Amino acid sequence: MARVSQEHLDARRRQILDGAALCFARNGFHATSMQDVLKEVDLSAGAVYRYFSGKEELIEAIVAEVLGAIRDVYERAAREDPPAMPDELIARTLAHMARERPALTEDGRWLFPRLMIQAWTETLRNETLSALLDEGFAKVLASWAKVVVRYQEAGMMRDDVDPDAVARTLMATVQGFGAQYALFGSFSPEALQAGVRGLLSMREAADGTGNQSVKKA
Which part of the chain is the HTH tetR-type domain (predicted)? Predict the structure, then answer.
């Protein structure tokens, strides 16, 4: 009997993960059955269960993979000299996820943000997934903080700024984009990049309070 190559095994695993992710993004975790996944990927139950024991393991694998891919973007950015500005880095993150998850597009709409919302909701009842998300979030946050430290080392940001606070704010910006896109679908990555760039262009008013000075007649 011919041995199956690792390349074939990896491709089959990718096929299953992409199909399951599309089902979850489209209908939610609870409304998606393993039969739905089997139909989506057009494989037998035996072929799918060879890789994953069931729906819970599929969900956990998808979340772990996504968090790892996002973390890799910031780890690479932290090694740049100088690192990309936040607006460019956020746009790079979204573009990377769109390239990494092309299967999560249906009728021209990117469904990855819907999958993200589904994962957050599922953590409220799934302790294993919640722990996995907590661990992955901490690693992504640490990678973002490395980028902020590089900003400081390059003289692009004040030394007295808390890297963790900045990292959390930048992550919240990306998460907020995902929520808006999933709910309303009218917020583009280009608009997000332009908005962040606009915020970065702000300067304090001449009086140093952050408020506009009022001219007296």
Answer: 10-70
